[in-house]
Write a structure and sequence with these properties.
- With 198 residues, this protein is an alpha+beta fold.
- The chain has a single domain, classed as Glutaredoxin (3-Layer(aba) Sandwich).
- The protein is 50% helix and 12% strand.
- It has 10 helices and 4 strands.
- A 4-stranded mixed β-sheet has the order 2-1-3-4, covered by helices on one side.
- It is globular, with a radius of gyration of 17 Å.
Length: 198
């Protein structure tokens, strides 16, 4: 969606969002998991250079808005990656809780109908819309079945603690790490395409 003249996200509204640090102080759940995913996300020197070069362009992504909620696994994994990308690139990041900002969410629905999060929106320095990215990388969609294997043989009613422990282990494993890396790759590719680097 590029109807920026009709956007509820004015420069003033963007500036009212939370910084990454403010968001971490604001959330009630999964703080340790957010911090873990943040610590475990590394932006390579090559990605850092490419992202910084993009930000310097007149039509480059100097600002990034993210919508999320602290209970959502895709946000727990993906939002820390966005924070790392913003830091590495020198982008100004502002985070908005989705449920308190449904008017913003409704501008960036997944497939025009789903309130999927995280929703990440990139703007130029003078607040022109560039692109948005939603929910999770394609690799995560392709590998969702791997997550179901974690719960094989467990009964949803009887084995809640075992299921929680298995899921926590999955979140710290190589598949989630791959999804974090793929988020960086997808976002870099999206921004290079939209800002004329490809």
């Amino acid at each position: 969606m590029t109807q920026q003249q009709e956007s509820v996200v004015t420069p003033e509204r963007f500036a009212s969002g939370l910084t990454w640090e403010q968001y971490l102080a604001h959330i009630k759940r999964n703080v340790e998991k957010f911090q873990y995913n943040y610590r475990e996300t590394v932006i390579s020197d090559d990605d850092t250079r490419a992202l910084r070069d993009l930000v310097q362009k007149d039509n480059g992504p100097a600002k990034v808005l993210a919508l999320g909620e602290d209970w959502c696994p895709d946000v727990v994994r993906g939002l820390p990656v966005i924070a790392r990308i913003a830091e590495a690139a020198g982008m100004e990041l502002r985070v908005f809780p989705r449920d308190d900002n449904l008017d913003i969410m409704n501008e960036f629905l997944n497939k025009g109908e789903h309130q999927s999060i995280p929703a990440v929106v990139f703007y130029t320095r003078d607040h022109r819309y560039i692109a948005h990215w939603i929910e999770r990388p394609a690799l995560a969609n392709a590998e969702m079945g791997e997550m179901q294997k974690v719960f094989q043989g467990l009964d949803r009613d009887k084995d809640r603690d075992k299921m929680r422990a298995a899921y926590d282990e999955f979140q710290r494993g190589p598949i989630w790490a791959g999804w974090r890396r793929e988020t960086v790759r997808e976002i870099r590719a999206l921004l290079e395409e939209k800002c004329g680097q490809r």
